[in-house]
Automatic annotation (TrEMBL), chain A:
Pathway the protein acts in: Steroid biosynthesis; cholesterol biosynthesis
The protein's name: Diphosphomevalonate decarboxylase
Reactions performed catalytically: (R)-5-diphosphomevalonate + ATP = isopentenyl diphosphate + ADP + phosphate + CO2
Its job: Catalyzes the ATP dependent decarboxylation of (R)-5-diphosphomevalonate to form isopentenyl diphosphate (IPP). Functions in the mevalonate (MVA) pathway leading to isopentenyl diphosphate (IPP), a key precursor for the biosynthesis of isoprenoids and sterol synthesis.
GO-annotated biological processes: cholesterol biosynthetic process; isopentenyl diphosphate biosynthetic process, mevalonate pathway
Organism: Myotis myotis
Enzyme class: lyase
TrEMBL record, chain B:
Entry's family note: Belongs to the diphosphomevalonate decarboxylase family.
A UniProt-annotated Pfam family: MDD_C
Biological processes annotated in GO: cholesterol biosynthetic process; isopentenyl diphosphate biosynthetic process, mevalonate pathway
Function: Catalyzes the ATP dependent decarboxylation of (R)-5-diphosphomevalonate to form isopentenyl diphosphate (IPP). Functions in the mevalonate (MVA) pathway leading to isopentenyl diphosphate (IPP), a key precursor for the biosynthesis of isoprenoids and sterol synthesis.
Coiled-coil segments: none
Substrates-to-products reaction catalysed: (R)-5-diphosphomevalonate + ATP = isopentenyl diphosphate + ADP + phosphate + CO2
GO CC field: cytosol
Keywords: ATP-binding, Cholesterol biosynthesis, Cholesterol metabolism, Lipid biosynthesis, Lipid metabolism, Lyase, Nucleotide-binding, Steroid biosynthesis, Steroid metabolism, Sterol biosynthesis, Sterol metabolism
Descriptive protein name: Diphosphomevalonate decarboxylase
Organism: Myotis myotis
EC class (word): lyase
Record pathway: Steroid biosynthesis; cholesterol biosynthesis
Domain Mvd1 C-terminal: 197-382
SUPFAM superfamilies: GHMP Kinase, C-terminal domain, Ribosomal protein S5 domain 2-like
Length: 360, 400
């Protein structure tokens, strides 16, 4: 923790999270408060993580930050918001102990370096893991022990959900100052050990509408979004939390797909319309529905964020067969053995009936 | 009109209509009553129409129907609903005249032949023009003069909007029996003479979800659709009618695009989700937004129905430039001179600034062809006997 040492270095890692009840739209752009609550699944850091080193020193004259080896502008508003917030929390904590003077280290500047173990081109949102890691690392060097939701959130809304493992809720809160807009763990990492996640990285395309501008335009122009936030999401949050606690994959999967589709529906209802799904995304959706219809139950679920990549949820006993179905419908080009990364998947058979059912 | 003649033949034509405030979802599957009102533009029959001949004869032993030269099942529920409804109206009218007995012709069976002058593969909904024409032709032979909204509607909901030219509203109605769910003309054919319509026919794809099943699934599974019908469409209907009456293209165009997008949004919110728009549709949407941004105003508007084809609205002074922009972004493959059909469009220039603003990689062959048309009239009766699709033997004439 923080002390009077003239130099302190801390390195942390933080995970990526995937929302199953989506966040899209802010009620406060500065404090980054959402128009609805959201729920996510934290992914394992063995496959995806951000690593961040934070160093404070009395000899530093300014804050500096490097992302993936390249120095970035420390004045970027989101980064500044995190720094201000962590320092505010550090001073608040200290001033709670009436006798102790504030340690000098609170005034030290910080150097931060951060890397992701996954490519940016994969289109996986790295801002959540990045800002969660930044918040966590800064908390270590500045001696902050309180809830870090606000620090992470001010960097990127969904980053607060990356502060916990397992299944995480970001409660939208009601207060104007956002103090009650916090993340909390709904179920721990080992609650549902059979659950598996497959990220289907779709071929890269030209630049898509960024989330910040996109969701702002949605809030301003989509009548359906407001209705979603007020009348649909609250009940879905309660329902999803129940499915997670009960390990009900049928319910979890179906609601995950519905919420992904509804999020993308509100993007289409935006003006100008935003389309994150492309023809490949739609073929994946089609594949999943046919796979489930063949089995007569929801065995696989998709969700899509602000890009064409599919995140697939399934149970461990279905992974091999589904991967075989994906290979069959989307034959890999050259990198046959580099097609599957991360957790090992034993090659699975594809029955003739399933091939016929997929019909693609 | 109906009489005691032993034989009567009538041939009519009816137009296609394109909704700018969309109908999607029924509150009554049998009477075909919608969950919200809708508004459409009637297209000109010079480019798109259904032609229908109806013949009644005391010698016919059964009703029969031929569509595009092929005999179809007369028992098909929608066709039966139209026939029952027209006959009910015919009897009702007659029985209003206390002294006159019902003419015998009301009991005559009917032969119907119908053709479209546009290909089915073009993905243009022919059920609206088809059922409107059927309703109109049957009304002629059976002597029905009352409102035909219900007859057409029972065949296909949007068909009631094809009973009028110009700009047409299908009022959803409130009564359970659907008697107040009727179409009415908002503005006539010649109200907005500068308005032009371009149908961009996109390359055909595999079979899409049909409208009837699709909208039923949407009503059953989409929370957003219910909200749209109750809380969004009523105000949009009033707004759109105002824009039409004022000939306000900026307002008309923007609202048309928003309503098309919202309709497709509710399809995506359906479970399983329905996607009628494909990558080409999205590129067309993108093109329109960039074209409008370049001009700093809404000069072009798109709308999409239950398929990937785009229907573009614009004013006559913009057609040439927009067609040039389309050719540039979607270079036609082989049929250079057959790319543009319908109303003549003089070749227009594409400025370098606009080319830069469009900034899209070309998609060769993405659009198969364009049909240029304009606002048109309602159903017409054809007087000349050679227009009849059924010959003296009351069977379809051989097609040339």
């Amino acid at each position: 923790m923080a002390s009077e040492k003239p130099y302190l270095a801390v390195t942390c890692t933080a995970p990526v999270n995937i929302a199953v009840i989506k966040y899209w739209g802010k009620r406060d752009e500065e404090l980054i408060l959402p128009i609805n609550s959201s729920l996510s699944v934290t992914l394992h850091q063995d496959q995806l993580k951000t690593t961040t080193t934070a160093v404070i020193s009395k000899d530093f004259t300014e804050d500096r930050i490097w992302l993936n080896g390249r120095e970035e502008d420390i004045g970027q508003p989101r980064i500044q918001a995190c720094l201000r917030e962590i320092r505010r929390l550090a001073r608040k904590r200290r001033s709670g102990d009436e006798e102790d003077p504030l340690p000098l280290s609170l005034n030290y500047k910080v150097h931060v370096a951060s890397v992701n173990n996954f490519p940016t081109a994969a289109g996986l949102a790295s801002s959540a893991s990045g800002y969660a890691c930044l918040a966590y690392a800064l908390a270590q060097v500045y001696g902050v022990e309180s809830d870090l939701s606000e620090v992470a959130r001010r960097g990127s809304g969904s980053a607060c959900r990356s502060l916990y493992g397992g299944f995480v809720e970001w409660q939208m809160g009601e207060q104007a100052d956002g103090k009650d807009s916090v993340a909390r763990q709904v179920a721990p990492e080992l609650h549902w050990p059979e659950l598996r996640v497959l990220i289907l990285v779709v071929s890269a395309e030209k630049k898509l509408t960024g989330s910040t501008v996109g969701m702002q335009t949605s809030v301003e122009t989509s009548p359906l979004l407001r209705f979603r936030a007020e009348a649909v999401v609250p009940a879905r949050m309660a329902e999803m939390i129940r499915y997670v606690k009960e390990r009900n994959f049928q319910g979890f999967g179906e609601l995950t797909m519905k919420d992904s589709n509804q999020f993308h529906a509100t993007c289409l209802d935006t003006f100008p319309p935003i389309s994150y799904l492309n023809d490949t995304s739609r073929r994946i959706i089609h594949l999943v529905h046919r796979f489930n219809a063949h089995h007569g139950q929801t065995k696989v679920a998709y969700t899509f964020d602000a890009g064409p990549n599919a995140v697939i949820f399934t149970l461990d006993d279905t992974v091999a067969e589904f991967v075989a179905a994906v290979r069959h419908s989307f034959p890999p080009e050259s990198n046959g053995d580099k097609f599957l990364k991360g957790l090992p998947v034993k090659p699975g058979p594809l029955s003739d009936e399933l091939k016929a059912a997929l019909g693609m």
